[in-house]
Design brief:
This protein is an alpha+beta fold. The chain has two helices and 14 strands. The N and C termini lie close together (6 Å).
Length: 156
């Protein structure tokens, strides 16, 4: 018997600019708030080697197909089961915080709580193209997205 699970995902994405990466050192500009670019001691644009060295000092890090995963991490006032860091052109590009739920109501409660927190911090958020979440893009084209994905647990 397979159990249905719900995956709540908070994804933060860096946008590359022709001269390199855009790193925000401030929390807001005249154009609005700036999305955080530093996570667990690593920054967007860091090399895989640098990210691994910074994070592995404090946490076990698993390497999977060119990405790194950390388990059971607190961030933004919430505990996350998985934090996955992905690279593009050998630079940290995506940080994805994930939490699985057995009950849709629990996932929706946390989704609503995080959505309200992000709206207070960043302002209006747009629905994602597939309609399963919301996103905000800052003046530097960095993006934060929160989504919920219903699915089936792999372990049964």
């Amino acid at each position: 018997m397979r159990v249905r699970s719900i995956l709540l995902s908070l994804t933060i994405v860096l946008t590359f600019i022709s001269c390199g990466t855009q790193k925000a050192a401030v929390s807001s500009t005249d154009e609005g708030p700036i999305i955080q670019t530093k996570f667990l001691g690593a920054e967007f644009g860091d090399s895989p080697f640098r990210v691994y060295n910074r994070i592995s000092r404090y946490r076990p890090v698993k390497s999977n197909d060119g990405s790194y995963t950390v388990t059971d991490q607190d961030f933004g006032g919430y505990s996350w089961h998985f934090v996955q860091m992905q690279f593009v052109e050998k630079m940290l590009y995506i940080v994805n915080f994930q939490q699985e739920y057995r009950y849709e109501s629990a996932a929706n409660d946390r989704f609503d709580s995080i959505y309200r927190m992000l709206r207070m911090k960043y302002g209006d958020m747009k629905p994602t193209s597939n309609g399963n979440g919301f996103s905000f893009t800052d003046a530097h084209k960095n993006m934060v997205t929160i989504t919920v994905h219903p699915g089936t647990s792999k372990g049964g």
